[in-house]
Amino acid sequence: MYNYHSYSDEELLYLIRESDEAAFKEIFDRYWKKLYAISYNRLQSRHSAEDVVQDVLSTLWTRREKLEINTLDSYLSSAVRYSIFHAVRKQLRNEELAHTIHTGKNAFTTIDEVSKYKTAEEAVQKEINRLPDKCRLVFQYSRELGMSNSEIAKELQLSSKTVEAHITRAIRQLRSVLKSSLSSLFSLLF
């Protein structure tokens, strides 16, 4: 039996690519508390935080042969942040749907309006998904979760100027790509 505690992250990554379960267990043990703290700090739910960390680590294992990871710590921290974002986004959508069903209020009056909005929303989301990872995450935190630049900077350990630059870049890229077909919708959203 090897002493995996003394192995570097790079060595452990190499071993899990070779399906070494003990190496994966070492990564799990090494990073669980840190990833849980990041997740819990944002979600404030023990169960949700555990789910996020479990998902990230299980994805690491299931995709072990395909992943190209330079720095394991950064990769896992970013993966947890993305998972948190998606968990919060899903929760917000579920709350909006529940509110709409409960109140019977809907912003659209015709099926045609709903269809046009969905088409436009899909086009915007497609372009958001094309943004570079960090830029996309900053933009989503800002526009979809309503976080301030200082909150985003603190959450992602970036400077406020960097956050501002990412948001500016995202808006500029989205506007240039979507300008012709979605200009009226875009002005409403941003």
Short key terms for the protein model shown above:
elongated, Rna Polymerase Sigma Factor, Chain: A, 190 residues, 2 domains, mainly alpha, Arc Repressor Mutant, subunit A
Brief overview:
By secondary structure, this protein is mainly α.
What does this structure look like?
The structure is a single chain. With 190 residues, the chain is mainly α. It folds into 2 domains: 1-106, Rna Polymerase Sigma Factor, Chain: A (Orthogonal Bundle); 108-190, Winged helix-like DNA-binding domain superfamily/Winged helix DNA-binding domain (Arc Repressor Mutant, subunit A). 78% of the residues lie in helices and 0% in strands. The protein is built from 8 helices and no strands. It has helices spanning 9-17, 21-43, 46-62, 72-103, 111-129, 133-143, 149-156, 160-189. The longest helix has 32 residues, at 72-103.
